[in-house]
Amino acid sequence: MTDLVLDGLSNLRDVGGIPTPRGPVRHGVLLRSDSLASLTAAGRAALASGPVGYVVDMRSRGETEAMPGWPADAPHPRLVPLPMLEGSVQQLTTLPSLESIYRDLLAGAGEGFARTAALVAEGPEAVLVHCTAGKDRTGVATALVLLAVDADRDAVLTDYAASTGNLGGAWRDRMVAGIQRMGVELTPQVEALLVGTDPEGLDRVLGEVEAEHGSVLGYLRAHGLTDAQASALRERLVG
Q1: Coil, helix or strand for 94?
Q2: What is the homologous superfamily of the domain 13-237 according to CATH?
Q3: Does residue 24 carry a catalytic annotation?
Q4: pLDDT tens track of the chain, all 239 residues?
């Protein structure tokens, strides 16, 4: 599935190939992207007929109302709404940094992250996780799932940071126009919120999780992932 193309998306990728002690993560199991609201008709048709079985939408209710994504009644793939970061763009911009957003996510969205890991574990079809940009909520979720199976940390952070290069140009311009219509000033902080990444900040926050729970897997277990699901997750992603 490394060559899956969904027309209209800017930040789509398969996380297969990331190294673990047992070999690389399998392709065609876990994909990540920006919002499916931007899919063209051709992109929607490709997704509907393709190998993705679940779409996990981590956007807030306000985001999904403003920009509807994958239909809730679509027979394939099935939509799983897991809203995170409820609130307006104006409220989000009061957070001082991406690192603070990640810390808040991990403090408040643990059940959603554990549910995402469980969906990946269930199989047999692929799971596509997305939010708006596909970098923050999606980036944290993907990092947790990969680190739960002992994926190489540097490779996970490198994959996370790849979003910055994917979100320039037309995607950035559309987002800037949208927030300006909402009356939000385009400050450097807002620019970072839109297209930036912070690998060092994410690494620090993940370290805090590991200090509290013993491991990323321990964090997911504390929020509902069962031992059976944890074993299935490893088997599904690595074998």
Answers
A1: coil
A2: Protein tyrosine phosphatase superfamily (3.90.190.10)
A3: no
A4: 456 889 999 999 999 999 999 999 999 999 999 999 999 999 999 999 999 999 999 999 988 998 899 999 999 999 999 999 875 555 555 667 899 999 999 999 999 999 999 999 999 999 999 999 999 999 999 999 999 999 999 999 999 999 999 998 888 888 888 777 777 777 887 887 888 999 999 999 999 999 999 999 999 999 999 999 999 999 999 98
Which pair of structure tokens corresponds to residue 158?
A: 């490198």
Separation CA 93–CA 78 (nearest Å): 32
Alpha helix (H) ranges present in 81-183? Answer: 89-92, 98-108, 110-122, 137-148, 153-166, 169-181
Domain ranges across the chain:
13-237
Active-site entry in 105, 131, 145, 194? 131
Interatomic CA distance for residues 123 and 114, integer angstroms: 15
β 78-81/13-14 pair status = unpaired
